[in-house]
Amino acid sequence: MPVLEVRNLKKSFDSTEVIHDISFSMEEGETVTIIGSSGSGKTTLLRCLNFLERPDGGMIKVKDDVLFDNDVIKSLSVESVRKKRLHFGLVFQSFNLFPQYTALENVMLAPRLMQKENGGAEGEIKERAEELLRQMGLEDRMGNYPHELSGGQQQRVAIARALALNPDILCFDEPTSALDPELTGEVLRVIKDLSTRHMTMIIVTHEMDFAHDVSDKVIFMDGGVIVEEGTPQEVIDAPKNERTIQFLSNYSKRNG
Half-sphere exposure (CA, 13 Å, Cβ side) for 27? Predict the structure, then answer.
């Protein structure tokens, strides 16, 4: 059974349709990367999955839980949306850490809020946060504030924070676009390590070599639709659609 099913998803802003009739699925433990030009709908798709934007049509299902079905659900309460978001962890391109909290406090914040509702031990929350930061190679930075961390370190804190609530699917929206080349590698290494540990992930990225190495499936989007999808060997090495070929050719020229 797929861990995620997306069927006929649509989203418009005013009269502009940004994503149209998007359908795909993924298995537990898979890494799916989404590539495409700016404005192709990649980020909007992620935001719809995370309910930062409400889709206008279609269906989203995680495991046996139908999160959204436009034919059935006409209104979503704030509480309902918040619970649906827990299926996903989202890592933004701009880190979005709280500047008034240390790295450890940033990772503990969401579990603490959940603790107030559902109970739970403060010691367990802190232990889990410390373990996640150690996995990110930040055992000596737990007490530092965001302004005391490099961009790569901040992004690794953001990844730990996204993992803190044990999401079914971890989503990355251009996780290295705000980093200089020297810091990009350290973040990509962390994501690659998560992939080898079979974390279920959706990654929007412009790093083609990384997408090729880490992906089980690659989706190429253009104009709000999925143009081509398949293994990295099928989509990146031997694309069949003319638009995919053009995109990859332009990428090669820019990075050649």
Answer: 7
3-state secondary structure (DSSP) of residue 69? strand
> What's this model's pTM, rounded to 2 decimal places?
0.92
CA terminus-to-terminus distance, the chain? 41
Q: Name the residue with tokens 């279609």.
A: 58
Q: What residue type is assigned to position 172 of the chain?
A: F
Angstrom distances, CA of residue 152 to CA of 21, 91, 138, 184 = 35, 13, 11, 7
Structure-block tokens of residue 115: 């603790």
- What are the distances in angstroms from CA 14 to CA 11, 56, 76? 10, 11, 20
DSSP SS3 for 85: helix
CB 141 within 8 A of CB 107: no
202: helix, strand or coil = strand
What whole-number distance in Å separates Cα of residue 31 and Cα of residue 169?
Answer: 10
Mean pLDDT by 10 residues, the chain (256 residues): 95 94 97 96 95 92 90 68 86 92 96 73 91 96 97 96 95 92 91 95 95 96 97 97 94 65
